[in-house]
């Protein structure tokens, strides 16, 4: 089986997992730790760049980061919190699910097109940078909104739920 097909199956699996996690998360109150930890966990993926096959040129880094940041805008716009029962919950958004699926489809199509001209290792590195460039601004925006609601709910004290 070739790497592009395997990574495509992996991307579909991860997208499905993200969908399921998001649906479950909306049923439970959130906290700062749940917002901050995913990008920290994902950051370990940067270790892939130790291996030469995953290294990318500076221009490719800029391209992937730019696309990731642009994609994050869609996620930021559809990720909102609400106060319910004296807790902070993520609001359910039908648009978020469509955007998540749409981003996955765009990513898969881009991978199919780019895999013919970019080495699979470099492409993997670029897509990791894209994903990281998407999740970090999104989670920062979520944290800032969470912090605002937390202060509204508990006064202007510091957030101690990390």
Largest sheet features: 2 strands, antiparallel
Query: What's the number of helices?
Result: 5
Q: Give me the side-by-side strand order of the main sheet.
A: 1-2
Cα-to-Cα separation, first versus last residue: 43 Å
- Our Rg estimate from Cα atoms comes to 17 Å
User: Per DSSP, what share of the residues sits in E-state strands of 2 or more residues?
Assistant: under 5%
> Into which percent range does the helicity of residues fall?
55-70%
Global morphology = elongated
DSSP summary, beta strand count? 2
User: Mean pLDDT, rounded to whole units?
Assistant: 86
Decide which structural class fits the backbone: mainly alpha
Residue stretches low in confidence (pLDDT < 50, at least 5 long) are none
Order of helices and strands: HHHEEHH
How many domains make up the coordinates?
Answer: 1
Question: In a nutshell, what does this entry contain?
Answer:
This protein has 162 residues and is mostly helical. It is 69% helix and 5% strand.
């Amino acid at each position: 089986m070739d790497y592009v097909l395997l990574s495509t199956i992996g991307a579909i699996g991860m997208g499905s997992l993200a969908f399921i996690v998001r649906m479950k998360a909306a049923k439970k109150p959130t906290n700062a730790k749940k917002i901050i930890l995913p990008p920290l966990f994902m950051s370990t993926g940067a270790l892939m760049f130790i291996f030469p096959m995953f290294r990318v040129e500076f221009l490719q880094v800029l391209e992937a980061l730019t696309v990731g940041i642009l994609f994050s805008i869609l996620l930021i716009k559809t990720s909102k919190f609400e106060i319910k029962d004296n807790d902070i919950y993520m609001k359910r958004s039908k648009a978020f699910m469509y955007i998540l699926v749409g981003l996955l489809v765009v990513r898969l199509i881009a991978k199919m097109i780019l895999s013919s001209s970019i080495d699979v290792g470099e492409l993997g590195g670029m897509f990791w940078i894209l994903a990281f460039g998407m999740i970090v601004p999104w989670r920062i925006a979520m944290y800032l909104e969470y912090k605002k609601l937390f202060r509204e709910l508990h006064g202007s004290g510091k957030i101690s739920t990390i």
